[in-house]
Amino acid sequence: MYSIPARSLLGPGRLAIPLHRCGPCSEAPTTASDAAQQAEERRGAKRRPNPRWRAPAGVYLHAMTDTWIDIPAGTPEELSALVGAYDEHLRAVERAFDLKVVVREEGLRVQGQRDGSEGAAAALRRLQAVVHQVGQVSALDVRQAIESAGDEVSTPELDAWRSQVLVRTARGQDVRPKTAGQARYVQAMRTHVLTFCTGPAGTGKTYLAMAMAVAALRDRKVGRIVLTRPILEAGERLGYLPGDLQEKVDPYLRPLHDALYDLVGPEGFERHVKRGMVEVAPLAYMRGRTLNDAFVVLDEGQNTTTRQMKMLLTRMGYSATVVVTGDTTQVDLPETETSGLVEATGLLQGIRNIAFCALTGRDIVRHDLVQRIVEAYGRAGSSGRQSGPSG
User: What pLDDT is recorded for position 49?
Assistant: First the structure.
């Protein structure tokens, strides 16, 4: 569209008439009234929908693709615990699924695309179950709910597992599985004589096994707890340690001591040790023994040799339960030595009363950075023979 300046043709103060170049010359307006009429017709044409119009690629049409899912709320206290301080839990769910969660009088409304809405609704329902069980929601609970939203385990089944408290710590905190993988691990220890559990650091492999051991001792299902691990330096040379034999091996067994202190307290630990109800010893001390009526936990199983693993497994006596844990990506053995844990998980498949559990990064219950670190090393294509302790 071109317009002629009023000053140049029509004089000062006169209206410039637009000259159109898009049609026949006969259709060009000659007066101001004709121009106004054509402008009005064009505005009317813009208001009429074009049946051949299609949305450009990448345009998000909220009215056409959004799905609304309403989640009924419980009491005001439960709703407050669910949304978190300053709605931080809802914001985390919104960021994870790229949608909007609105707090309404009757509950929560999830608005977004269908796949995201269903996942967010599943995460919020699991957080509701956590509120019913423990009365509050932590950042870890939110992360686990988001990550397990698409898990194949049904919400009622997972909630039933999570509602079962394994043991209460010396500080009064309940120990229970926090993920679907941990719930399967606990179930395997309850129903099998021998359980192998592998997974990255921070998945609770050893801690849950020790919690199950403490619960079995408390319920008089076993008469003692035996905790052991191989004595192997994690890639560095520590030299000679001062003290007697027990003092020399104590630094290697300190992680087991720490977990027991948390579960039964320092006084309870010393009392159980004096009574012979708890034994923490290097794996070499197990040779030649028969472990009857005992709950045995072998930690750092990836650092056992074939002979050591066979030796421990053949110590099993009547009324005994054995749990072997380890991280097969953190093997500190020499390159020429085969990990006893890796070999056993292949040889013993299909044998009755033996269970195998493989936890993943989704089961990490430590700081969020631990999960990101494990994923980063996994993406880098780690060789599977890295040094460092597992947990």
Answer: 43
Residue 294: closest CA among 321, 325, 264: 321
Tens digit of pLDDT for each residue in 125-166?
888 888 887 788 888 788 878 877 765 455 555 566 666 788
List all residues 6 or more positions away from 336 whose beta carbon is below 8 Å from its beta carbon. none
Residue by residue, what is the 3-state secondary structure of the chain?
A: CEECCHHHHCCCCCCCCEECCCCCHHHCCCCHHHHHHHHHHHHHHHHCCCCCCCCCCCCCCHHHHCEEEEEECCCHHHHHHHHCHHHHHHHHHHHHHCCEEEEECCEEEEEECHHHHHHHHHHHHHHHHHHHHHCCCCHHHHHHHHHCCCCCCCHHHHHHHHCCCCEECCCCCEECCCCHHHHHHHHHHHHCCEEEEECCCCCCHHHHHHHHHHHHHHCCCCCEEEEEECCCCCCCCCCCCCCCHHHHHHHHHHHHHHHHHHHHHHHHHHHHHHCCCEEEEEHHHHCCCCECCEEEEECCHHHCCHHHHHHHHCCECCCCEEEEEECCCCCCCCCCCCCHHHHHHHHCCCCCCEEEEECCHHHCCCCHHHHHHHHHHHHCCCCCCCCCCCC
Q: pTM of the full predicted structure?
A: 0.67
Task: Determine the Cα angle at 325 with ends 351 and 238, to 5°.
Answer: 140
Please write the tens of the pLDDT for every residue from 280-289.
888 988 989 9
Query: Residue 185's pLDDT is what?
Result: 94
Q: Tell me what the mean pLDDT of segment 31-55 comes to.
A: 52
Q: What is the pLDDT of residues 47-67, one digit of tens each?
A: 444 444 343 433 333 444 567
Mean pLDDT, the chain, integer: 78
Do 259 and 205 contact (CB within 8 A), yes or no?
Answer: no
